Amino acid sequence: GAGVSQTPSNKVTEKGKYVELRCDPISGHTALYWYRQSLGQGPEFLIYFQGTGAADDSGLPNDRFFAVRPEGSVSTLKIQRTERGDSAVYLCASSLMPGGIYTDTQYFGPGTRLTVL
Amino acid sequence: GENVGLHLPTLSVQEGDNSIINCAYSNSASDYFIWYKQESGKGPQFIIDIRSNMDKRQGQRVTVLLNKTVKHLSLQIAATQPGDSAVYFCAESTGGGSNYKLTFGKGTLLTVNP
């Protein structure tokens, strides 16, 4: 079956520009997560959606970063006034059930490689 | 200066040998642990998980061992194959409703020589 998909696979932008990164989770998965992975590092948590609402956005680095999931399926990560330090691979994951007492496996997409020049 | 972030721990094995990848976790409150495999240009792929009430769990060709006393996790891969070459990450999460937030380790680069 189809896994998590992310578009675009690569995005090159100039410092100060606005970018949107899209995530299509596995059909039927209610939970959606965004992570950021810098070169040579493990993924770092950014934000978690349970349905349409952001249940935890504590990992977003600053107010230039924002994410939405208006219909509880597709999510968009938005970055304003991009900086060179934003360059990284942005990963999306989804799981069947929200996190809680019983953790459910998070399945990752291939990521979007963002390069800010 | 040198970017130490690029210097992953590495493990090189011969095809057919068994591999053991180790991970030290930091949070004694973590109660759920996962191993992911990440090939170049791809997202992390789930391998196996274990809860803190267990000390061993086996899958197909893989075994995860958990030692909570010393906060140590290991992944054993039997009969390692060239397709196993990748970066392996351990991840942990805590209970109390926070199981969604995975904290990843630095990763280990496994190279399998044919």
User: What's the average pLDDT of chain B?
Assistant: 89
Distance between the termini of chain B: 35 Å
Radius of gyration of chain B: 14 Å
- Structural class from helices and strands of chain A? mainly beta
| Helix/strand order of chain B, N-terminal first | EEEEEEEEEE
Assign a percent range to the helix content of chain B. under 10%
Main pleated-sheet profile of chain A: 7 strands, mixed
> How large is the radius of gyration of chain A?
13 Å
Shape of chain B: globular
| H and E order of chain A | EEEEEEEEEEE
Could you tell me the number of beta strands of chain B? 10
Q: Low-confidence stretches of chain A at least 5 residues in length (pLDDT < 50)?
A: none
**Count of DSSP-assigned helices of chain A:** 0
What average pLDDT do the residues of chain A reach? 92
Q: How does the overall form of chain A come out from the CA principal axes?
A: globular
Chain pair sharing the greatest interface: A-B, 32 and 30 residues
- Number of strand segments of chain A: 11
Can you describe what's shown?
- The complex is a heterodimer of chains A (117) and B (114).
- Chain A is mostly beta strands.
- Helix content of chain A is 0%, strand content 47%.
- The model of chain B is unreliable at 1-5 (pLDDT under 50).
- With 114 residues, chain B is an all-beta fold.
- In chain B, strand 5 (56-58) and strand 6 form a beta hairpin.
- Chain B has no helices and ten strands.
- In chain B, 0% of the residues lie in helices and 52% in strands.
- In chain B, strands 1, 3, 4, 8, 9 and 10 form a six-stranded mixed sheet that branches. In chain B, strands 2-7-6-5 form a four-stranded antiparallel sheet, with no helix packed on it.
- Chain B has strands spanning 10-14, 19-24, 30-38, 45-51, 56-58, 62-67, 72-77, 86-94, 103-104, 108-113.
- The chains are: A mainly beta (117), B mainly beta (114).
Structure at a glance:
Chain A is mainly beta. Chain A has strands at residues 5-7, 10-13, 19-24, 31-37, 44-50, 53-56, 65-68, 75-79, 88-95, 107-108, 112-116. In chain A, a hairpin with a 2-residue loop joins strand 5 and strand 6.
